Amino acid sequence: MSHSTSIANTIPRLPRLDDMEVTQQYVDQLVSALEDAIDVLNSTRHRSITELNLTNTQEHGGKLRNGDVFSENGILKIVRAGEIYVGPNTGATVLGAVTVVTT
Question: Taking a C-beta distance cutoff of 8 angstroms, is the pair 44, 2 a contact?
């Protein structure tokens, strides 16, 4: 799959019913389309990347989803399930401002 071809363009369209009756032919077409879609998804999961440029990454893992990438002190990290990520917290009082960063 080239860079110009998106996954959405290669996944087959599901067959549509002409009427409300589900026939064996329709089921066969549906199964075939789903198998083709699964093959496309499986082929795109394991890809070799020769060049990667990540710009404007978040500086903490707070409010990100599992699998999202962020940078911390110049090191790329991936949000994982079971880990706790907190963004910077800033508070202000009458005496001044206090910044607390927890990672």
Answer: no
Any idea what DSSP says for residue 5?
S
HEC-encoded secondary structure of 40-72: HHHHHHCCCCCCCCCCCCCCCCCCCCCCCEEEE
Amino acid at 89: N
In the chain, domain spans: 7-45, 57-103
pTM over 0.70: no
Record the tokens describing residue 36, joined without a space: 């083709």
pLDDT at 17 over 80: no
* Cβ-Cβ contacts under 8 Å for 94 (sequence gap 6 or more): none
